[in-house]
Design a protein that fits this description.
By secondary structure, the protein is an alpha+beta fold. The protein is 19% helix and 32% strand. The protein has two domains: 26-122, no CATH class; 125-218, no CATH class. It has three helices and 13 strands; from the N terminus they run αβββαββββββαββββ. The strands form four sheets. A four-stranded antiparallel beta sheet has the order 2-6-4-5, with helices on one face. The chain has a four-stranded antiparallel beta sheet with strand order 9-12-10-11, with helices on one face. It has a three-stranded antiparallel beta sheet with strand order 1-7-3. The longest helix is centred in the N-terminal third of the chain and has 19 residues, at 3-21.
């Protein structure tokens, strides 16, 4: 039995138990990985807060040996606020096999072609109160933080993400963006403004710009 199937069975068990307490929820998302050659074929992805991945290479392996053609995923990165730059792991290589952390968004680079990646996981309800998503400032890169929004988030549009984080974290968010593979560029919504209030979609990571740091302050609202 594959590890992904085992996790799905565990999630199903959790989901059945959750019906009585109104708590957790399991997910299986078919996520289309697309090419966009002007930006290294990057896809910004968000994974559930509880998942089967410990390190970056686990995601590479899942894509390249389970769901897609071998070698389709070439690298995975996250934005390291400590260094003000992307931290990248090359699939199949030992270097920089960083940990996969709840609430953090990732950039996946793929080779030519497309594939549907089946993402399996559930939400970690510790993030409702005891744990939280942190934000850091990094002035060289517009104080950007890459985040993952829960798949069952109550935030339907970008402004809802602004409102939710700002309610928890003392009004630190100034804008929210996602990478639009159709235009090969970031699509940005300024918090409090009517323009480009894009939809929040399961599996799509967001880049949040902040005006100040916030330590474990965001507890994402969800159904």
């Amino acid at each position: 039995m594959s590890t992904k199937v085992k996790l799905l069975l565990v999630i199903c068990s959790v989901f059945v138990a959750a019906i009585a307490v109104g708590s957790n929820m399991g997910f299986k998302l078919n996520y289309a990985l697309l090419t966009n050659t002007d930006n290294n074929n990057i896809n910004w992805v968000a994974i559930p807060y509880f998942d089967n991945y410990t390190a970056a290479e686990d995601i590479c392996t899942d894509i390249n040996t389970v769901d897609c053609t071998a070698g389709l995923a070439s690298s995975i990165a996250y934005f390291d606020t400590a260094t003000n730059s992307a931290s990248t792991h090359g699939c199949g290589l030992p270097k920089n096999n960083f940990n996969i952390d709840a609430g953090r968004g990732y950039a996946l680079s793929v080779t030519a072609g497309t594939c549907t990646w089946k993402i399996v996981g559930s939400h970690n309800d510790n993030y409702d109160a005891t744990s939280g998503v942190s934000f850091a400032t990094n002035t060289d890169n517009n104080n950007i933080n890459w985040i993952s929004v829960p798949y069952h988030s109550t935030a339907a549009v970008a402004e809802s993400v602004c409102i939710g984080i700002n309610a928890n974290c003392a009004n630190i968010v100034s804008s929210v963006a996602y990478f639009d593979t159709a235009t090969n560029s970031a699509s940005t919504h300024g918090c409090g403004l009517p323009k480009n209030n894009f939809n929040v979609l399961p599996g799509r990571a967001l880049a949040v710009s902040v005006t100040a740091a916030g330590s474990s302050c965001w507890h994402p609202a969800h159904y």
